[in-house]
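Need DNA repair protein RecN's 3D structure for a figure. Predict it.
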Amino acid sequence: MIEELSIKDLGVIGEAVLPLGAGFTAVTGETGAGKTMVVSALGLLFGERADTGSVRSGAAQAWIEGRILVDRDGPVAERVREVGGDLDDQGAGRDGEMILSRSVSAEGRSRAVVGGRSAPISVLSELGSALVVVHGQSDQLRLKSQSAQRGALDSFAGAELAGRLGAYRHLYESWQAHTSEIEALVTERAARIREAEQLRAAIDEISAVAPVEGEDAELADLAGRLTNLEDLRLATAEARENVSSESGDGPDTVGLIDSARRSLERVAHYDAALTPIVEALANASFIVSDISTQLASYGATLETDEVGELDRVQERRAELTSLARKYGPELSDVIAFAAEAEPRLLELDSDSDRIEQLSALVDDEFAELSRIADELSALRRAAGETLSTAVTDELGALAMPNARFVVEVQPRDDLSPTGRDQVQFLLRPHEGSEPRPLNKGASGGELSRVMLAIEVVLAAADPVPTFVFDEVDAGVGGASAIEIGRRLAVLARTSQVIVVTHLAQVAAFATNHLRVEKDLDGPVTASNVVQLAGDERLAEMARLLSGLPDSESGLAHAAELLETAHTLAVS
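Structure prediction for DNA repair protein RecN:
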């Protein structure tokens, strides 16, 4: 809901603030005062293309700002946050205040601000499509596309159709996915066969080698040992001879330690301080003897290495290196590749079975979709007849007694995400004429009334936050104008309604009355906007009725009209 609209230097409006709020706002004023600038301001605020001619003569730029209440957790607030803006904490309950502004320079530059942050003009359009619908002689229809008309009819049809449509859409997505999978399997069959052959060859090659995790590192160590076997033997023999000589040709470490221990044992009883040294030498003798044993054992293993073992190790390493080069780079990658390739090969080998299963499933889903689509068509035709009758009745009360509104539901050749129906809203403007699309079957003024009739009927099922009507009362008067005003008041029970009007019969139903008035002082005509109440509103109503705001008979007639409108609005 738009709380307030501020306008500066737009057309003939120098500076104006329009308090709007909930309910029905009527905007009136003398011819040329700039009433349509209010609609133009709303259009610019919600992303319409800027016209430099709309900038007030002599001004550098036109500027419009709107303060709008939106659900803090709704999609509009989410979009504002996506572009870096935020809501002000001015609203009540779940609502927050969104501030939008738009400036248009005299040179044609345009700038938009959303929630305090600069944003593309396209963002204003996105927000406007969710918040405001403008119906005027030159404005596009909210329901101009067939998809929008189908959506409006579906909303009008109610819960039963919504339930069936939900089931249909869920099944349609599954049917589409399975159909796409079949198409991919068939289209890619040759490529999948090649992939299967490559995987099978790779698995056979890896299986033939049968690599083991960590084997490459172990073989590298073994190759290093076998390559340097003679050096290892000589070093081991020399070390053992030095530790514990078996030849007896020279001293060894074990013999020297034992000799030292025996020398100290002979005199240790003279000084207790030597006792721990003797014990340490005894332990050292034991440790060195153990080292000698280990060297002997290691040397024995060197003597048992088989002839040709190095060749076999190098051959095995070459096999593993070849696998790593193809499927690696590491041996662990080769093993992982083989583990992943086997289920993929199984999947590829089962393509024929999968296609057969999917084909049967797709056929079953298509049959069920067709059945639900028939149900949707029946529900739409029934709802279309009800909507046609209700809107036609409204048109009769809006000075279009010979017009007939038609909802056409025609079958498509194929299934779509919403069924098999093409929905189109048509208008037969008078007896004997053929129903035509809405924007081709009515004049500008008639089209506004047609859209008013449709919106009144759809209001409960397909609500819109704000409606703006420009020239909805063109070409009517008297009782018909009263009916237009009454229906706008009905629409205002569920939505904010802003109407630019020149008829007192329409303005009488407003809960908020604004007048655009000219100021002829100075070289350039300027207009501003004032909110009317009490005697000021009564005088404006008299002016609209008779052109004489001070006429006693006009004032009396205006008072009577306001009372009548109040009675009809609450009935």
